[in-house]
Amino acid sequence: MVARGHPYRGGGGSGLPEGIGRGGYVIAAIALVGAWLAASLYTVDNSEQSVELRFGELAGIGQPGLNIAPWPVYTYEVVPVTRENVINIGQNVPRQNNGRQTDAGLILTGDENIVDVDYQVVWNIADPAAFLFNLAEPEATIRAVSEAAMREVIGRSELSPILNRDRAIVSQDVQALIQSTLDSYQSGVNIVRVNFDKADPPREVIDAFRDVQAAGQDRVRLENQAEAYANRALAEARGQSAQQVQEAEAYAAQTVNEARGEAARFESIYDAYAEAQDVTRKRLYLETMERVLGDVDKIIVSDGIAGGGAGGGGVVPYLPLDQLRRGQGGGAN
Questions:
Q1: N or C: which end of the chain has fewer CB within 10 A?
Q2: pLDDT in tens, 203-239
Q3: 172-181: long-range pairs with CB below 8 Å, 24+
Q4: What's the 3-state SS for 107-165?
Q5: Is the pLDDT of residue 4 over 90?
Q6: Which of 143, 154, 155 minimizes the C-alpha distance to 181?
Q7: Residues 272-296 pLDDT 10s
């Protein structure tokens, strides 16, 4: 007796379960291959790098473009290496610390003053493998190192230079200290720059500090005015001194030249006197008398003239020769 039901399919069949054809298996295989390729193939942008892992261990660094990491033996993680990440630190950026708000921007300076600092730490990834394997919390680590570096640099500086002129120097020192500390951790992080946004006294004392700053500026201004006046007075005194020295030197040169001229004249007269003493003596006598009596209002008459006149009495005593002389001079005028 033959049981009723499906007819018996002999050895000519495919041996596949009933209801599943050969095409179904091909589609399933293609789907599995597609899923494997989707899990294994990946692309890397020019601004990124990939880290390939083989059973969780570092296997290599993927290059920009299309890469393959055969799953499940290999896995990968794409890391943006050129993107600049920013961490804001300061009094206006409070953060949680064991459930309490802390002002990271209030820092004690080397001269025992408090300064309120707001700054930014800009960083990117230099070594993606070290960044992934050596830092559990990268941002928290960079923040802590940055705060410690800023406190160390400002702690050995005075307040006034930080507020006025040394911000760039402080930024450079802080950046170098952060980088060296992170390098010692083998963090794979590159500090691009440190931006100094603000450096002021605390809000509670800023008004008094501004008054002190204004007084200091007034002092500097008055010192500059006094120094300018001193320089001007000193320049004038030096000019007058140089003028007097030049006048003295000119007078000395004139006196020396006159003395030399008188000496040369005396020597020439002496030479002439040595050659003809009588003539020279008489000439000197006449020149001397002419110089002495030249301005005297007198009439000099020699003995020969006085004794040779008519009547033997010489010149008439009452003849006003001096008045005649003046009259002749006036008529000549």
A1: N
A2: 776 677 777 778 888 889 999 999 999 999 999 999 9
A3: 174/119, 174/146, 174/149, 174/150, 177/149, 177/152, 177/153, 178/121, 178/142, 178/145, 178/146, 178/149, 181/145, 181/148, 181/149
A4: EECCCCCEEEEEEEEEEEECCHHHHHHHCCCHHHHHHHHHHHHHHHHHHCCCHHHHHHC
A5: no
A6: 143
A7: 778 877 887 888 888 888 888 777 7
**87 bridge partner residues:** 121
Looking up tokens 């004794």 gives: 307
By CB neighbour count within 10 A (0-12 exposed, 13-18 middle, 19+ buried), where does 116 fall?
buried
- The 10 Å Cβ neighbour count of residue 51 is 22
Give the pLDDT score at 226: 93
Angle at which helices 138-155 and 167-184 pack, to 10 degrees? 130
Q: What is the pLDDT of residues 32-69, one digit of tens each?
A: 766 766 666 666 666 667 666 665 565 567 676 566 66
